[in-house]
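Troubleshooting log. The previous structure file for this entry was overwritten by mistake, so regenerating from the original sequence record. Sequence copied from the archived sheet and checked twice against the printout by T.R.
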Amino acid sequence: MLAEGGRLHPAETAEEARSQILMAWDELRLQEWADRHDFIANIMVLAARNSDVDALNLGAQAIRREAGELGDEHTYALPGGDTLTLAVGVIVRVRENDYRSRRGEGPDMLNGYRAVITAMDDNHRVEITWRVKDAKAPGGYRHESGWVTSQKVTGGALSLGYAMTIAASQGLTCNTSLMYGHGANAFATYPGITRARTICGCRWPSSRTTRPGPGSARPAPRRSAWSGPSTRSPASSGSPGRGMVSDLLQEPPAPPRSPGSATCRPRRPAPSPSAG
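Regenerated output below.
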């Protein structure tokens, strides 16, 4: 169904697939949803594995940094040796519930909110602003804000919010979803392709080398990459390794056998005793 509708786009490598997703994301957001809250509400970038989500998030951040859309950056040290670089203009995702209204400190900041960093002070606190539905407000929405301390950021309260896992997207609906499908079987793929109301684009690498590595999150070049529905089925493209689309909806391949592992060979028959 996806192939027939031109929504399935195999790529030669994992890096190429992720770059295609980021180019499509960049083109769509600039053409359709210039307002940051509009593109948060209307476009999702999805992947099955956290490592691919991290690579896509870093790539999207690099694209916006290169375009001059972000303010001065500060890098926070996270548990486990990871880091998180934030700046005014960055899109973030809230990773824990903070019921501020119970303490009289403003609106609740809930796990799963996607927001824009609208200020950063000298102590590296960040103010994030998100949009909520309000039938009485102009346009049907209002904006709410709250400050997050640097201690909470280093504790994991925020992450980059351009991409998320398919599991995290369940229950959400948007205009367009762009999904990196490696690592997702048919049961995991279904929630990803049903997030979008109008456009769903899915990309898989045909190469077996698919784990993000050094340099895998580099920004994609700014060029047109979103051609809409294709009239050519990937199954008939004639490219080696792209013939069976159904293979892409199965579990990831098992890891290769280590060089020293034993193999089973047929036993050679014992020589027959010589006559006499």
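The chain has six helices and twelve strands. Archived copy saved in two places this time.
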